Every structure is written in structure tokens, then in C-alpha cells.
Fold this protein.
Amino acid sequence: MPRYKYEALNGDGVILNGALVADGEREALRMLERRGLTALRLQMDGSAASVSPLRRRRLTTPDLTVAFYELCIMLNADVALAEAVAAQGRSAHHPQVVAAFAGMATALQRGQSFSDALAASGLPLPDYMLQLARAGEMTGRLGESLGGGVTQMEYEYQVRSDLRNALIYPTILVLAGIAAVLVMFTYVVPKFSSLLQKSEQLPWLGWVVLAGGTWVNANRLWLGPVLLLSGAAIVMALRQREVRRRLFDRLGRAPLIGPWLVESETARWAKMMGTLLLARVPLMRALELARDGMQLSAQRARMGEVTRAVRGGTPLSQALEDQDALTGTGYNLVRVGEKSGQLAAMLHSLAKLYDDAGRTRMKRLLALIEPVAILVIGLMVGLIIMGVMLAITSSYNLAV
């Protein structure tokens, strides 16, 4: 039987190397699972490395939500926190998730709190998950608090997926238009570059088009790499948390996309407030945690003023209205919740209203992208053709 070398992760998050004899790769993987090990790399002795697909695959939001959903189920079933976290550290999830839970299990054994261990795990979680973890520890209802965070993560992932799917066709359209413009500038327009010799008699648009095409054609060897490097630099910059935060703040002030982002932030705030209050978190602490979970600086500052006003004795509905933080319907829902003692339920209803409004606004915005892209690309192509035609007709008129 063949002999396999392996690199695997044990329940304590330690990477182990060894060898075993098995009938095939699947049998070797099953043998490692029975030992409580998660395979990171499996290689037949003397052959080229065969890396597990889990090793190559990037960690995604569904990987995180599934792992934390299982954790919430165990916690709500009264499984001890340390035992539940350790079980996730021995699961068959993504290796990065397994390693993180194994590390958290070790931290819990050393007396560290779950929220601190979660913050140090290195998992790419949104800020509100850490806030909800702290709130759950305060009230002893960690399973419910994390469950609310998992629901929010799933909702945001669905919104992002819908947005990406809706942008596929406009993106292809824009790229095809850019490619068409580059082809015209590189191969079509330079064929008429001889007309530039009569630049004094050429119309302004014709001169711009011919000169631009000639310049692009002459510098195409370095222009392509420059564009690729610029695109790579933009992608790398967007991976920086501070850059994304500043871009998010600027988009929040944009005419069309700004109101949608504000509604999404308000929905997130209301949903987190409802989850925290259901977890028996005191109102002031819930306001602070929900405010810290917001991403837009302007909205976070506004909710900070609301928190200060409530601390001074102002009712929440009045403080929100003074800061113009919600709509008229939102103020009424919060006011009814305060009077009836059902503030958490009213906040969840408010979050649903804002979610629905934000989804509708997003669909309207996406519906505008396609015709605007067609209009812009058609205008660019039309200007190029018009410039060439003007140059040709002007040259013909001069010859006659």
C-alpha cells in the first residue's frame, strides 16, 4: 500500500507532520479525521504535492456563518462554552476557522474571555460580532447574541451577492465599450494620422481624436503595463481598512448611493439594538455597542449624540428625532416601543422597514447603471467617429 506524508492541524491548533499507510488518499483523510486531525496537506511519498482543496480555497463569509451558526446551536442547547468552542476546533470546517477555534479553546482554558479570544483569533469578522459577543457575555445569553450577528452577516452577504450579480452585465458592457474605444484609438484612428499635417485647417474635435489616437498608438507598449499597475495599486489600496473606511464615508455623501448606505447603516443599528435589548443588555450599554458597530463616521457621530442625550434623561424617540436620525415612521415605532415595553420588537420591525427600503433603492440604482453605461459608451464611440468624419470631410473640402 502507498505511504502518505501529511501536514495536519490538531485540536489545540498545532500543526503536525507525519506519515501513514493507506489504500488511497480518501482513506488517508478518513484516518486523519478519526485521529481528530484536520488535513492541510497530503502527499504520496515520492510524488508531487497534492494540496487539499481546503488549503487553497479562500475563507468566505459562508464558511464563517456556518461555523458560528453551529456554535450558536450548541450554546442554545446548554453546551458549555469551552466544550462548544473546542468541538468547533475539531470540526471539518475551513482550516483557518478550525485553527481559530482551536486557538480560542486554548485561550478559554487559560481563563481568557470569549470576546477577547474572538478578537485575537484573526477571523475576518465585522465589528458588530465582537460587540454582540461582549454583550452576550454580560447577560449570559451568548448564543442568542451571536445568533443575531450571524443573521446580520448572512443578510449582508446576500445583499453583496445580489449587488455583484446585478453588476455582472453592466461590468461586461463597460469593459466591452472600453475595449472598443481602445481598438479604435489604437488601430482605426492612426490610419488617418496623415490628416494631422493639415492641423491648422482641421476642426477642433477632429484634431483631438486624431492626435489622441496617434499618441495612444505610439505609446501602447508602456501604456498597457501602466494601466495594469494602476489597477493593481487600486486593488491593493482597497484592501487597507482605513482606505475602505474613507471611501465608505465619501460614498455616504454621494447623491444616489449615499441615501442607500445611510439606510443600510440605520437598519444595522436598529437590528443590533433590538438584538442587544432582547439579550437583556441595558439601554445605555446597548446604545454604545450599536453605535460602535456602525461604519459611516457621520452616522456614528449622530448616534453618539443620541447616546449622550439619552444619558441626560431624554427619551430615545425624542433624542433620535432631535438628531434627525430616522424617518417619521421610525420615531413612531420607537415611541410605541418605549410606551409598551416592546422596544426590541419595534426596533426589529424598524430594521426590516429600512432593509426593504434600502433594497428597493439599490434596485433603482442598479436599474440606472445599464442605460447610463450604454449612453456613455455610445457617446464616446460617437465622438470618435464624428471626429474622424469631420477630419476627412474637412480635408476633402480643402482639396476641392
The radius of gyration is 29 Å. The longest helix spans residues 343-399. Residues 46-55 have pLDDT under 50 and may be disordered. Residues 114 and 169 are 44 Å apart (CA to CA).
